[in-house]
Amino acid sequence: MIAWLLVIVTLSGLGIAIEYQFAALPTEMSYHVMTALQLVAILLAVLLIFGFVSSLAIRGIGRLIRPRLLRSYTLFLGWNLLRSQQTTVTWRFRIGRWLDSFLPSEERLKVDGAWTALAGSGALAAVNLLPKWLPPTTTGGEAFLDFLCLSAAGIGVLCMLRTLLVGAALVGFITRQGPIQGDPPNRQRIAVTLPNFISMVGVGIGVWALIMVMSVMSGFEKDLRSKILATNAHVLVTPGKDILPEDVPTANGFTDLLRDIDGVTTVSPFLEEEAMISSPFNTSVNLTIRGIEPNGGTAKELATKLMLGDMEALATPAPRAPLKPTQDLSSTHFPGDGDLVMPPMPSPGNHSSATTPAPSEGVVLGSELADSLRVSMGSEVRLISMDGEIGPTGIRPRARTFRVIGIFQTGMYEFDLKLAYISRSAAQRFFRSPLEANRVEVRLSDPSNPRTTTHRIAQNLPEGMLVQDWQELNRNLFSALKLEKIAMFLVLGFIVLVASFNILASLAMLIQEKAKEIAILKSMGATNQGVMGVFLMLGLFLGLIGAFCGTLLGVACCVLIETVGVPLPAEYYIPTIPVDIHTTEVAAAAFSALLICLIATLYPSIAASRLHPVEGLRNE
Amino acid sequence: MNDAPLVEVRGLSKTYVMPERSLTVLDSVDLTIGKAEMISLEGQSGVGKSTFLHLLGTLDTPTTGSIHFEGRDVLTMPPTELAHFRNRAIGFIFQFHHLLPEFTALENVMMPALIGRISGAEAEKMAAHLLDRVGLGDRIHHRPSELSGGEQQRVAIARALMRSPRLVLADEPTGNLDQYTSQEIHQLLVELNEETGITFLIATHNHALASRMKRHLRVESSRIIETPTAGGPA
Fold first, then answer.
1. CA distance B100 to B114
2. A73, A185, A520 member nearest B114 (Cβ)
3. Is there a domain that residue A501 lies in?
4. Contact A530 B115 (CB under 8 A)
């Protein structure tokens, strides 16, 4: 065990050192070398980790089932056919005299190995840390630093090579100088046969990939859901097509009707309309304007996502910057409520004038929208409603100036680009809406299960009102995510399927090889079912250990990614790769791998059970 | 039923049908084997000694004829019952010992008991005792590859006796051994026959071994004939 650890530590140390050294060379050559080295490192790491974990699993499972092994010959034979002592014997070779001198004494192998590994890791770490600790101040200092780094690298590589040697001696791959003793009589069955190991690694990699991809996808889904739930209504109430405006309750009416329903935490009526927005620098179409109560639930929720500003400013119109006396008002003054003419945009910096216009209402913009408009706190923007009046030149849009009093960030690009909040009263005036509120945002104490509360809400409202929960509102999005997840599960499941063919092939070969032994078993009274059971057990053990290793590594990697945090580029809008481990998904991955392995084992097992004993004995 | 002979073979024939012709190896063989007998079965290579042993051991089925074991017709038994019968009543010793290479001597000997659902501890005790009896008490944890040919055959003998069968079928048990080791194995088989009362039917080319048996059979022209002496005429 310690030997495996030493080998893993050594190779990791070497890998890191090489990576650091090559990363410093920004040439095409170093890129290709790095890619090749990374591939080799991944391959080696997978084999080593699986070697280590499978060896651990075999020992663990072996200890667990040892008392039960002798109760059933199918279990006993299946378990022992899985393992082999051959691996250690065939790979063993004697080292030369000069290498022998590098090895510590037999008793100190583990201790010396551990110290050497530690020293090697330290030396290799020093190669990268020395330039930070001792920044060269003189010309001579640079050369001295180079010398120190090279020495440390040399010591590190030598230590690591010695650790590898000690590890190999501990595992038994190499033996010391001395008279050849012959095979020791009580060898430990520490390994599995090579075909079994390959099959196991295949299954393990499949399960590993399945768990990681499923968990990352679940992480993205969870992140998306939490952002939708934090920004949008858990239950949205809208007036239907058939309801008359006079039948739609007022804002307070909605609150009175819904606030006492069990499961409802906040009721926030608001007015939502589509509009355009423009700044002196840019224009954005397809904007959703929400007119909210400055002290309501939505405002409080939004306050938590504010990067800049204050939601209280939404209630009080800010005084506008005075205009210059010489400035033509028609070209600089943003028309107020009711103006039907779109004046030309002012140039930036024209707001430091002596003339004081009417105070402007506040607007809270999403961060992406603010960026695209190139506005910041205190800037003025113009909202343009497409619902204008018909004039001699066609529909004349209605426009009004608002002052940016806050910038929010939800973490959802779509929301941050397409949403703006103003006060409900300002929205009602601007859109000339006959309704106080055309939407009601209802938040629930348990948004994960909104069906019952949604039903109660619908019962409390007048007929004709449309009540939809967040699952219904985002059905297409979550259906697509679910479909994508199923597709990924199936695609990655093919890795396990391919691995199961590996098991099928190796078992079929094993059965050909063991025809004589099968015949002997039958001559001793083993039934056809018993022989079938032996090979089923072998397949089951392969699948079990492979799935166990894969699950262990998959969950460990997910936990590592979650804990350490793998940064994502800014354009993904999520700082680190999100991971959400679902027990059911992990169990599904492991169980499906096990099932596929069992199915793959069926054919060779049946073939083994049908082998005629005389044929097996005759093929001597 | 106890008065019935151990094995009673009547009209036993075995014909191998091949695409071009058929080959009759055994033709209308009649034979009765009693309890605690020590019988040699001789004949040239390829005359059908092994086939006869396989038929008696129910590893193969005859073309015609019947085999009664202590009065029971074994050929009418369903496969699972036949497997149990083999486990309880028959022991096999092969020329090339046929030990399972992955297992130690002890585990190999335990195997018939494990197949017969004897508990592990009891099987281990019995196997250790039998290995001690055949002179391998100090080699029980060795694998077949770590044992000599003679030792491997002793393990195979111990394995054949593990379930205290009524009949042991040995197919040239010393065919692969040197003269000295063969004599040791002969001696062991005779001793075991006397000690346990188990019937031994031993196919062999070794006249020395055959001459130590009380009864001699010979396969000749697809028939089994009784001879007064080992290798002698009918």
1. 14
2. A73
3. yes
4. yes
Mean pLDDT (chain A) is: 76
Let me know if residue A184 belongs to a domain. Answer: no
- Chain B contact present for A88, CB below 8 A: no
Is some CB atom of chain B closer than 8 A to the CB atom of A73? Answer: yes
pLDDT at A342: 43
Per-window interface: B 67-106 vs A, CB < 8 A: 79-80, 83-88, 90, 92, 94, 96, 98, 100-103
Contact A71 B80 (CB under 8 A): no
Residue of chain A whose Cα is closest to the Cα of B92: A523
pLDDT at A493: 82
The per-residue pLDDT for A357 is 54
Q: Which of A71-80, A130-139, A410-419, A589-598 has the highest mean pLDDT?
A: A589-598
Average pLDDT over residues A487-505: 83
Both A526 and A580 in a single domain? yes
What percent of chain A lies above the pLDDT cut of 70? Answer: 78
Instruction: Kindly state whether residues A508 and A389 are assigned to the same domain.
Output: no
On whether residue B74 sits in a domain, the answer given is yes
Are residues A163 and A15 part of one domain? Answer: yes
Q: Give the pTM.
A: 0.68
Give the pair of three-digit tokens for residue B42: 């001789």
Task: Tell me whether residues A525 and B54 touch, CB distance under 8 A.
Answer: no
Taking one residue from A and the other from B, the number of pairs with CB-CB distance under 8 angstroms is 88
| Most B-contacting residue of A69, A518, A521, A523 (CB-CB within 10 A), to test interface | A523
Place A131 in a pLDDT band, splitting at 50, 70 and 90. Answer: confident
Which three-class secondary structure state does DSSP give residue A460?
Answer: helix
This model of the complex carries an ipTM of 0.89
Q: Which residues contact B81 (CB under 8 A, 6 or more apart)?
A: none
Contact B83 A185 (CB under 8 A): no
Q: How many domains does chain B have?
A: 1
Tens of pLDDT along A7-29? 666 666 666 666 566 655 555 65
Per-residue pLDDT reduced to its tens digit, A512-561: 888 888 888 888 888 889 999 988 988 888 888 889 888 988 898 888 88
Burial of B178 (0-12, 13-18, 19+ CB in 10 A): exposed
- Dihedral angle sign, alpha carbons of residues B185, B186, B187, B191: positive
- Whether residue B93 contacts residue B143, with contact meaning beta carbons closer than 8 Å, is answered with no
Residues of chain B in contact with residue A529, where contact means CB-CB under 8 angstroms, are 80
Here the tokens at position A243 are 């309801």
Q: Which two structure tokens, joined as six digits, stand for A399?
A: 């426009």
Burial (CB < 10 A; 0-12, 13-18, 19+), residue B92, is buried
Give me A419's structure tokens: 């949403």
Whether the pLDDT of residue A416 is over 80: the answer is yes
Out of A462, A491, A522, a domain closes at A462
Q: What is the pLDDT of residues B162-205, one digit of tens each?
A: 888 889 998 888 777 777 778 878 888 888 888 888 888 988 88
Beta-carbon separation of B112 and A524 below 8 A: yes
Classify strands B167-171 and B90-93 as parallel, antiparallel or unpaired.
Answer: parallel
Mutating which of A524, A534, A609, A619 best tests the B interface, going by the most B Cβ atoms within 10 A? A524
- The answer to whether A70 contacts B60, with C-beta atoms less than 8 Å apart, is no
B120 touches chain A (CB under 8 A): yes
How large is the average pLDDT for residues A227-256? 79
Which residue type sits at B144? P
Which stretches of chain B score pLDDT less than 50? 1, 234
